[in-house]
Amino acid sequence: MSAPPRSASLRQAQWQPHVLALNAPPAYVPWLTEGGSLTARLKAHSHNFRVQCLHQRSAICLSDEAGVIGMHHRGRVWEREVLLRCDNTPAVFGHTVVPMSANASDWPLFSTLGERSLGTTLFGDPLVRRGVLEFARLREGHPLARRARAALAVNGAVVPPDHILYARRCLYQRRQGTLLVTEVFLPTVLELIKTNDNKR
């Protein structure tokens, strides 16, 4: 079987079960492997944390998401994308997909989140089961890398095209519903660690 065209391969990420497979700069590793609430960690590294909701709507899931959320092929999902901002600086681009088959009893608060943190909701619900983390390098051609850069451009920030973005994702389950959260760490997240260290 021949290899897929390069343009097609760039649109998919090679998700890995261990962060070391990314060969990411060491400063990213604590963020990628955070076992608790990322929202709580970001709040601890800023004076003012907020969620900027970019959109929440029906969309077609990405090609490297369908199988993870139990779909045989790409199809329509509920999609939510946000910027997590620390002291008004975007630090993380968040992307969440929920199959259309999920109902209000599976994820009762998802449709009304607005600019509230999804992470706080997930970690505060005893019915939610969290899967294992997966990690990936997102090159320029990956849809989430393009969307993250576009969101930053609207906010007056630029990530160089050749800069690799590091991401993680996790599958959550509640009752019969699944929900996949992907978090793309922007270069500015490294400045939060440095600021925090300077306060010690």
Which descriptors would you attach to this protein?
200 residues, alpha+beta, Chorismate lyase, 6 helices, 22% helix, globular, disordered N terminus, disordered C terminus
Please characterize this protein's 3D structure.
With 200 residues, the chain is α+β, with helices and mostly antiparallel strands. It has one domain: Chorismate lyase-like (Chorismate lyase). It is built from six helices and seven strands, in the order H-H-H-E-E-E-H-E-E-H-E-E-H. Strands 1, 2, 3, 4, 5, 6 and 7 form a seven-stranded antiparallel beta sheet that branches. A hairpin with a 2-residue loop joins strand 2 and strand 3 (89-99). The radius of gyration is 16 Å and the shape is globular. The model is unreliable at 1-10 and 194-200 (pLDDT under 50).
Portion in helices: 10-25%
> Could you describe the largest sheet, including whether it forms a barrel?
7 strands, antiparallel
Number of strands: 7
Head-to-tail CA distance between termini: 56 Å
Broad shape: globular
Which architecture would the CATH scheme give at its second level? 3-Layer(aba) Sandwich
CATH fold type: Chorismate lyase
What number is the mean pLDDT? 85
- H/E topology pattern: HHHEEEHEEHEEH
Q: Indicate how many domains the architecture comprises.
A: 1
CATH superfamily caption: Chorismate lyase-like
Task: Look at the structure and give the CATH class.
Answer: Alpha Beta
* Tally of helical segments: 6
Task: Summarize the helices and strands and which ones pair or pack.
Elements: H1 6-10, H2 29-32, H3 38-44, E1 49-60, E2 76-86, E3 89-99, H4 118-123, E4 129-130, E5 134-138, H5 143-154, E6 165-174, E7 177-185, H6 189-198
